[in-house]
């Protein structure tokens, strides 16, 4: 049956669409449409009606009331539920965004506002020549982040003009969205081991990266130290609660920038969100390693992670060394094979510590039956009791420590057996004070048992500490990562050794540094400038011969050896509890922490997790573990989706392996982080 013109008019209706044409005011266009017209047909009608010759391929329809893109062009208006009262905007999918990188440098580039954030970050990292984009994400800074800086701006008559690296005309991002693609396997750039930047024309890992060599060098080079005054003006979290608030702004990886209210040319932070840095390689990762170093550096300087004064001085010495090499004009262009091998070994150790993966043994071969046995001292904290250590004969085998009154009764009944699987291992070291301690927090039914072990010297400490770290992950000393772990610990201890001699005195006379630039403001207040400089130069002697790329890797290693490394904090309320707690999320475990004292209450490991989900009605995350253990909590400092994505993201990253294709299973990521929303 044929429809008459009157019947068609009654079945059709008027749709108002605003056109967001760059450099022009938005104009309203009225179209006569029917519910069975597909979205592609609407856009075609619209372009024909506008009669402007230009490339419209990047434009799409945005539904303002529903806060969503209409990207399925084969769907009809009826299927989407679009009616005459809909406010639609015809706008480019790619818009300009300002990103502050870990090195506090701001880049301005064109980013997809219609792709989910996971995909948008992948494209951003491809543009910036950063591999393993799944480890990074976008963070919307809290008001506190710019608070102090704004105060200073008011006092200054001249506005602070921030230097921005403009990548607006990058060919990768100026047109349609980038295809996922494979990483280019043919790129084998040479690199400079002194300044850590690629030294050949084939400098980028991604064959289609738009970065010029100059821009790549900017992103791969360490920034000059900030002045103490500028440091003091930056926001510093003072408590675990403050640190938790920093994590409230992570964007939802399963939704687009536009859906999350991000405006064109807004400033976001690009940060490493997940602390599992997979397959670091100086041949391709000059930018990635530098940005990782810079994120670690700022975490230390702004006290986002706690460290001892001795550790602060090591970090200061490495920063001073890296800063000197970065500014040096006398850069060597050639390195020996042995130097390359040293860097590769450092990388291997770094990866082993984070991933627990395979690595070649660089110390003597371990015995057939992995076992440690020695006299150590033990202390169990009790109220109203002085800290008195008592000596016992300790035997470490598999993932357990057994201790006896003395060596002679080793085959008899032990005083106690400690199962370290799932425990927290915290270093308690002061090299200058000859203190080599290991703090163990062992999970029990009602919380955590606290045990302190005291070693006599460096090698003993390194062996026992490495064994404890592996045992906490359910691994024994037979694992190939044991010896590299021992070597990493010994390397870190050697950096802490103080070698006071005349060289430091002569260096002080020709002092070329402002020591307050390399330590946190709180640490700087404790010492006179000359005293601080002397201690930094003293520590610098242990790292003075390191090539630049290795120094950055050592800094990252030292960062990851800190007790709080890799913990992302959230303020939560556990089901049945009347007070707020801090939840720490790491790559392999969850930790419940007392918000007042900062002491860990209990630990749950991902290896024992059976399932987890979200009750979206009450915004509660529920997790089930082995042995009928279950927990549930609501998140108070962020949306529960943020916490859920953090947990699911780590589970997803644990599925990576070197043998698999470089292309990520994006569907698996969304399945693990989406919470069946």
Automatic annotation (TrEMBL):
GO molecular function: integrin binding
UniProt-listed GO biological process terms: cell-matrix adhesion; integrin-mediated signaling pathway
Record Pfam families: FERM_M, Kindlin_2_N, PH
SMART domains for the chain: B41, PH
Top-rank taxon: Eukaryota
Protein location: Cell junction; Cell projection
The keyword Secreted is annotated on this UniProt entry: no
InterPro entries to which the protein is assigned, alphabetical: Band_41_domain, FERM_2, FERM_central, Kindlin/fermitin, Kindlin_2_N, PH-like_dom_sf, PH_domain, PH_Kindlin/fermitin
Domain PH stretches: 377-473
Keywords in alphabetical order: Cell adhesion, Cell junction, Cell projection
Family annotation (SUPFAM superfamilies): PH domain-like, Second domain of FERM
A GO cellular-component term linked to this record: cell projection
Family in the record: Belongs to the kindlin family.
Protein name: Fermitin family homolog 1
Organismal lineage: Eukaryota, Metazoa, Chordata, Craniata, Vertebrata
Gene from which this protein is expressed: FERMT1
């Amino acid at each position: 049956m044929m429809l008459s013109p009157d019947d068609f008019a009654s079945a059709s209706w008027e749709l108002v669409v605003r056109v967001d044409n760059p450099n022009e005011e938005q104009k309203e266009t009225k179209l006569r449409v029917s519910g069975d017209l597909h979205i592609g047909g609407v856009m075609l009608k619209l372009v024909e009606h506008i009669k402007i010759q230009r490339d419209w391929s990047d434009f799409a329809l945005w539904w303002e009331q529903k806060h969503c893109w209409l990207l399925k062009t084969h769907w009809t208006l009826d299927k989407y539920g679009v009616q005459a009262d809909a406010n639609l905007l015809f706008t480019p999918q790619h818009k300009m965004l300002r990103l502050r990188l870990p090195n506090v440098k701001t880049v301005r580039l064109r980013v997809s506002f219609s792709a989910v954030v996971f995909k948008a970050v992948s494209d951003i990292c491809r543009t910036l020549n950063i591999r393993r984009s799944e480890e990074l994400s976008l963070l919307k800074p809290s008001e506190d982040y710019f608070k102090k800086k704004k105060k200073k701006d008011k006092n200054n008559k001249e506005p602070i003009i921030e230097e921005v690296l403009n990548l607006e005309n990058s060919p990768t991002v100026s047109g349609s969205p980038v295809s996922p693609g494979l990483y280019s396997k043919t790129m084998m750039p040479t690199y400079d081991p002194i300044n850590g930047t690629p030294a050949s024309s084939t400098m980028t890992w991604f064959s289609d990266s738009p970065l010029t060599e100059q821009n790549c060098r900017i992103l791969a080079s360490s920034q000059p130290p900030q002045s103490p005054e500028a440091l003091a003006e930056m926001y510093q979290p003072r408590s675990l609660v403050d640190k938790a608030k920093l994590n409230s702004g992570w964007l939802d990886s399963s939704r687009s920038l536009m859906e999350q209210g991000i405006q064109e040319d807004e400033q976001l932070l690009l940060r490493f969100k997940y602390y599992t840095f997979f397959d670091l390689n100086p041949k391709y990762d000059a930018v990635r390693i530098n940005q990782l170093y810079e994120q670690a550096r700022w975490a230390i300087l702004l006290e986002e992670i706690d460290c001892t004064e001795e550790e602060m001085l090591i970090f200061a010495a490495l920063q001073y060394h890296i800063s000197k090499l970065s500014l040096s004009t006398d850069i060597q262009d050639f390195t020996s094979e042995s130097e390359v091998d040293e860097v590769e070994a450092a990388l291997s150790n770094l990866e082993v510590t984070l991933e627990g993966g395979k690595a070649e043994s660089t110390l003597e071969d371990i015995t057939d039956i992995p076992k440690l046995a020695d006299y150590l001292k033990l202390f169990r904290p009790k109220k109203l009791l002085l800290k008195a250590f008592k000596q016992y004969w300790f035997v470490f085998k598999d993932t357990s420590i057994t201790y006896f009154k003395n060596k002679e009764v080793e085959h008899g009944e032990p005083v106690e057996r400690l199962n370290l699987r799932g425990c927290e291992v915290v270093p308690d070291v002061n090299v200058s004070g000859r203190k080599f301690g290991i703090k163990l927090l062992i999970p029990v039914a009602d919380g955590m048992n606290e045990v302190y072990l005291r070693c006599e010297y460096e090698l003993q400490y390194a062996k026992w500490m490495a064994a404890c770290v592996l045992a906490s992950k359910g691994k024994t000393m037979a694992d190939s990562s044991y010896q590299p772990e021992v070597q990493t610990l010994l390397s870190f201890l050697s950096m802490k050794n103080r070698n006071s001699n005349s060289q430091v005195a002569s260096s002080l006379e020709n002092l070329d540094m402002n020591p307050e630039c390399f330590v946190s403001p709180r640490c700087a207040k404790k010492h006179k400038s000359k005293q601080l400089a002397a201690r930094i130069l003293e520590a610098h002697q242990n790292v003075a011969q390191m090539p630049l790329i290795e120094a950055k890797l050592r800094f990252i290693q030292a960062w990851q050896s800190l007790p709080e490394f890799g913990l992302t904090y959230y303020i939560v309320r556990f089901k049945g509890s009347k007070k707020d707690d801090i939840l720490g999320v790491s790559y392999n475990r969850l930790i419940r922490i007392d918000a007042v004292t900062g002491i860990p209450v209990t630990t749950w490991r991902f290896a024992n997790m059976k399932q987890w989900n979200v009750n979206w009605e009450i915004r509660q995350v529920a997790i089930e573990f082995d042995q009928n253990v279950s927990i549930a909590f609501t998140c108070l400092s962020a949306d529960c989706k943020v916490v859920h994505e953090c947990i699911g993201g780590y589970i997803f990253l644990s599925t990576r392996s070197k043998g698999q294709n470089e292309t990520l299973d994006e569907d698996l990521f969304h399945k693990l982080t989406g919470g069946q929303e």
